[in-house]
Amino acid sequence: MTPSDKALVPFVSVDHMMQLVHHIGVADMLRGLADYIAHDFARWEQFDKTPRVASHSAEGVIELMPTSDGENYGFKYVNGHPKNTADGLQTVTAFGLLADVDTGYPVLLTEMTMLTALRTAATSALVARTLAPRGATTMAMIGNGAQSEFQSLAMQAIAGITHVRLYDIDAAATAKCAANLAGTGLHVTACTSAQEAIEGAQILTTCTADKAYATILTDNMVGAGVHINAIGGDCPGKTEIAPGILTRGDIFVEYPPQTRIEGDIQQLPEDHPVTEIWQVMTGAAKGRTSDRQITIFDSVGFAIEDFSALRYVRDSIAGSRFYHPLDLLADPDDPRDLFGMLQRAG
Description:
Layout: E1 8-12, H1 14-24, H2 26-42, E2 53-56, E3 61-68, E4 72-80, E5 94-100, E6 106-111, H3 113-131, E7 138-142, H4 148-159, E8 163-167, H5 171-181, E9 187-190, H6 194-198, E10 203-206, E11 213-217, E12 227-230, E13 239-241, H7 243-248, E14 250-253, H8 256-262, E15 275-276, H9 277-281, E16 295-298, H10 303-317, E17 324-327, H11 338-345
Parallel strand pairs: 1-6, 7-8, 7-10, 8-9, 10-12, 11-13, 12-16, 14-15, 14-16
Antiparallel strand pairs: 1-17, 2-3, 3-4, 4-5, 5-6
Helix pairs in contact: 2-3, 2-4, 2-10, 3-4, 4-5
C-alpha cells in the first residue's frame, strides 16, 4: 500500500534547509522572513497566544511554542542549554510543525535550529528598522556565538547597517565571527571589551549564553539616542541589561506575559510599562519619538515569529527539491479500519 499525498508530510532536513538558504540567498531569505513576520504582526490579534510551555532545569530549558491563526496551527520544540558548547553541542536546537486546522493534518515538518537563527535575526532587524535612530550605520555585536553572524547580516540586509563591532569574552568566538563575515560587505572591527564595542554604535545587540543574572551593559555604558536589541536574556534567571538602563529607556516586547517571566524586564516591577512591538508596527502605539530616546527591544522570541517562519518555508519549498515526503501518517483505505491496515502489512 502506498500512502496518499495527504499522508506524506513534507520534511525539511538540515541539509535541505541549508540548500534552500543558498538557493534563495541569505540576505533575500532574511528579508523574506521579515516580510512574513511583519505580515503576521499586523494581524497579531487573530492569533492564539500563550507563554511558551517550559520545563526548566539547572542545566537549561526545554520549551514548546504553539500558536494558531484559525487556519493553520504551528508549534516549535526548542531547547536552551548554555553548557552544551563545552561538550561540542549546540546551545539551542529546534524543530517545528505546521498543520491544517480544518483536518488536523500536518503540512510541514522541518528542522528549526538553522531556521530559528534566521527568524530571530530577521525579527531583530525588522524591529531595529522600526525603532533605531534614523540613519543608523553601526551595530555593536556583544556575544559572538552561533547567532552573531545571522544578526549582523540581517541588520545589513533589513536595517541598512554597514559597520559591525564585535566583542566576546572568548576571543576565538570573535575571530570566528569576523572570519565568517569577511566578504559580506560589512566593515568588521574586533574589540577587546564591551565598552570598546559600543563606541560609535547606534544599535547595541546583546546575545550572550550564560544562564545567569549578568550585566553585559552597565548603566554608565549607555548614553542617549541608541537602540538596544537585547536577545540573550530569554529565560528566568538570565539577564544582560542593567536595571538602570531599563528604567531610562522605553521598552518594547513581543508578548508581555512571557517577557516578564523570561526577559530582562524580569528585573523590574510587574507593572513597569512596556509597549508591544506589533502595536508600533500597526501605528497603534508610538515607537521612537526623539533623537535622544533609548529604545530597548527586550526580545525572548515568540511563537508567532516561528509560525511566520514555518509559513515562509512551506511556501518556499512548494514544487522544489528542498524537502523529502515523509510517511508520517497512517493512511488506511477505510479510515475506520486502522487495524485492517496493520493486518495487511503483515
